[in-house]
Amino acid sequence: MRCSQRLIVLLIATSLCVSAASNTWKKKDKKTKAQREANLCTMEGNAAALHCVCVGGAPPVNTTSAECWIFTGVSKDHSIWSLFATQPHINQLKILVRPQGLFTFIPTKGLRHLYHLKELQITYANINEIHPYAFANSSSLRELTLARNQIVTLDHHAFAHLTNLTDLSLEENRIAEIKRDVFVDLPKLQKLFAAHNNLSVIQEGAFRQLAHLLELELDTNYISVLTRDTFTGLGELKKLDLSYNKIRMLGDLTFSELWVLEELNLEHNQIELIANRAFAGLNHLRKLTLSHNRLAVLSGGLLGGVPTIIHLDLRSNNLETITYDSVQPIIHNLRNESSYFYIAGKKFISGELFREEAEARTVWHT
Fold first, then answer.
1. How many domains does the chain have?
2. Which tens digit of pLDDT belongs to each residue from 300-323?
3. Full domain range(s) for residue 42
């Protein structure tokens, strides 16, 4: 009888152990399956914080383009960033923040997994500061757009070791200053757009590592002072836009580091004085826009530093007269029918103005 009771107890215990083990394995299997199926583009549980719409390639792991929306607050250490590893072939990524969302950082942990990323856009975030190496030293990234993110501060090495980056847009933020060593090891950068910010200070040498930059847009800011050292390193720059700033004067050799510059836009500033040698060294400049400033005098030697100009705009200044001596350095260019000279709200075609040498020597009253 006792043996039978012991046997029954043993059988019950064995049954309970088997049942417990079975439940444990089921839980583990379920967890393993969930982990195996977790994917940036298909995971259902991530909708509360971030949801990605993926296109291109063959799902679930060959997506080439993703548009991710942030709906609520998400932290730097959120597990969602590890899921970027499930889509290693993404080459285009947009991160957009909904009005109720909160996004205050560059997702460096996620970007580290995207070895083929070529285009990155982040918009409508609240990123106060771009920290050093925020873009994970990506060697594949070519275009980076960070417009409308309320960015205020760019730390040193904020944009560093992005060896294939060609276009960088920082427009419509609140950046107040560009410091030295913000842009480091960007050997292919050609276009830098920083218009519509709060820029008032550009440290000397801030662009010194952008040797191959072709286009720089700094318009619609609060820049008031420019020096020769502002543009150190920009030896290949062809287009510079400084319109809609607070510039009052241009000193000698201000642009002398810009040896191949072709277009210079200074319209809608407060320029009252331009030193005779302010444009010295701009031997390739073809378009100079100085409209909507406060110039009262155009000195005789001013245009001597820009002998190749074919487009000159001086409209809406305080100029009363412009003499032949003022434009003599570029007189032959203005005879060309393709050139034009704007003054006093009218367009004067050079072929008509300078048909005769005697006519060219007259004084034009605005």
1. 1
2. 788 988 989 999 999 999 988 777
3. 24-126
